[in-house]
Amino acid sequence: MSPLWSVNTCLNFKKATMPANAIEHDRYYDYETLTNLLHQIATDHSRLVKLSSIGQTFQGREIWLIEITNPDTGLAADKPGYYIDAHIHAEEHVTSSVALYAIDYLLTQYGHDTDVTHLVDQQVFYIFPRLNPDGAEYSLKPPYYRWVGNGRYRPGEERDYGLIPEDLDGDGFMAHMRVPDPDGEWKKSEHDPRLLVQRSPAEYGGEYFRLYPEGRLMSVDDVEVTIQKPRDGNLNRNFSIGWTPENVQYGAGEHPLSEPETQALTRFILDHPNIAGMCTYHSHGGVMLRPSMTLPDSEMHPRDLAIYQELGEAATEITGYPTISVFEGFTPDKSKPRRGGFEDFTYETLGIVTMGPEVWDIRREAGLTDVPYYSSYLKDETAQAKIFDWVIANCPEMGFRDWVSYDHPDLGSVEIGGMIDIWTYRNPPPQLLRDICHKNVLFNLFHAAAAPHISIQQLTAERLEGNLYKISAVVANEGYLPTNLTEVAIQNEQAKPVWLELTLDNGQLEKSPKRVYVGHLSGRSQRRAPWSPFGEQWTNSKRRVEWLIRTADMQNTLTVTAKSEKAGSHTVNSNIENILILN
Question: pTM score, two decimals?
């Protein structure tokens, strides 16, 4: 079997039996249920699964990690690692569903599907189903808070002035308030009066509204309702790379790694240098994101860009999501790039190829095309009507609340209702989860299979004179990615060289070091075209290492080990007689 599947091979996973384990793939899980489920999985699959916690949140919840590998094929730390995380943003519940599906698929297909079995034998998977359990609880349960951080503050309690979010009518949903105002920006749509659309610049003389989040006012200002940005802690702005303070970038936190979740995650990644590929899940947008968050493609090393583009092409074919740069295609204002992000930390600092799927897009589900990936609100009334109709047809109770009159203590007579963003723009209805999860996990398997893979392909002994022998080993990288993963890893001195080591049962080395470093070995990613003097020049994917030994015992056992931080390890044992080249 090829260490890197073709896209067509990966797509054949769709023919496999869908998972049937303890996990239900048509529902969302709260923390308690998720915790019980993970413990049950670890018990049911104790040979392949290790469950642990990398730390605790402000509210004392565990940040669970599922580790999956076959221990009979070696230690996890000696294998290439593939990392998946989910739910770093509290409102993005669908991402936990994808991570759980990945766990389920690996375990149920192991021993039945050849490729899954190969991956679990050869690699280790590190899967975080929920990085932000405190925030997720606020957003998963009524009243389904829309803007939530990571539990440092209860939603609303960190604000100093203005509107405080609150479920005023007690219906269990954080909806909107439409307030009659002749200067208002909104009006009822002719398509359906429940839908609000923007009035035109020249329009006057109609029934208009101001639209606010549902809530009360901390203080009454007879001029304007003010809304303070929440200090809710966007964990994906709290990493150390390019960090800027809260007053410059919303959600950045008090200082880099100020939050327990980002501290624990950073420590875990640094303690696991075998990680060779990463996927960090988000919603919404229906797009596959790749670094950089702050730099245009022209400033990325060409070899790294080529790797991202090739993996991106496969991602698009497997998932249907366009693959774009965060900066180039997902940043509306290029003068205000996102900073302190996870993808940039893992790629631009550590040199790990990291992808970030935005796994749900209600706009395309409703039949819209050619819409901005990063925008939730579409001004076009026809587009809004399509989304509205889709929501009413597919998730009417959870996705839209009919407008209900309410006597607001500060604003007077208002109506509460409208679109529930959590269950429309941010997350799909549960009946759609399985298909969304399946195609994204297929890409995870493809990405994992692109890892470098070290192998000793040849081991020989040649008698020189008397009891003196030359031992020769050829080590190769059989994977797609180079053993250094990226050029950034070399530039930042994060890429450790490959080494080989020889040990003897008896005898001695003659003028040869026991351990020999051979540098980095390229993968197939650097040979994407026939050789040309004008094209990218090939680099070595194999190296020969030689030792001189002196021994009188032909049955002397030699042990040669090849080791790469990212590409795993391989050990070959043999006696001299079995590998001797006869002159």
Answer: 0.94
